[in-house]
């Protein structure tokens, strides 16, 4: 099947192109979990600038960032990043540290609320906002509330990373959700391909877009519909798909028979 061929061709060899490489540097599950959250929340904007920022953010936290955060040993002046001022970044680090002190792990915080996955994600986002003890536009952007109706790409990406089994990319850390309960993280590349492949007709890449595209992918893999996300996003990120017919690229693309962008 075309999507499976795409997944098989884009595995962990492409890890270096993705912010998942940051949590994968650590061995301990607690460190991977904490770094996954930070890397996912700041996964927006220019890829190189994001990578440089995460290097500067994580370096002072040392070899065991979860313990450093929980102990409150925070960098005095963390770097700013685009919409986040240095004070916002410091408040986030402090908030994650407080959450770890209170719950032990981020999963325990997520699990502390019963309900449907969307209700638990909403509560998780609100809990982190509260733990930051600072209100600012930068933190609102960093910790969006799913109830606002956006696709919440960075939350979806974090959940994909920690919930999906370890496949050399995703981390397989959490058991409080199953892969079947995840929604696909919708970035500009995934949104374009989802429309081109007929996974949804929605124009706006919002929460309903993510739900419809995920439901369509579940027809191919009901237990793990977001398994296709990394490979779909990689097509655009690696510039192997330009979002239009480019014969030398489309000729090599396993999606071509199904892609409205390439002509059928
Ligand atoms: S067939 Fe061409 S336009 Fe369609 S996804 Fe592949 S590379 Fe992109």
Walk me through what this model shows.
The protein has 264 residues and is mainly alpha-helical. Helix content is 50%, strand content 0%. It has one domain (2-258). Helix 2 (29-41) runs antiparallel to helix 9 (153-163) and helix 10 packs across helix 12. Bound molecules: iron/sulfur cluster.
- Heteromolecules bound: iron/sulfur cluster
What oligomeric state best describes the polypeptide chains here? single chain
Q: What string gives the helices and strands in order?
A: HHHHHHHHHHHHH
Q: Would you report the number of β strands?
A: 0
Chain-averaged pLDDT: 95
Structural domain count: 1
Helix/strand class: mainly alpha
Spatial shape: globular
Question: Low-confidence stretches at least 5 residues in length (pLDDT < 50)?
Answer: none
First-last Cα distance? 17 Å
**How much is the radius of gyration in Å?**
18 Å
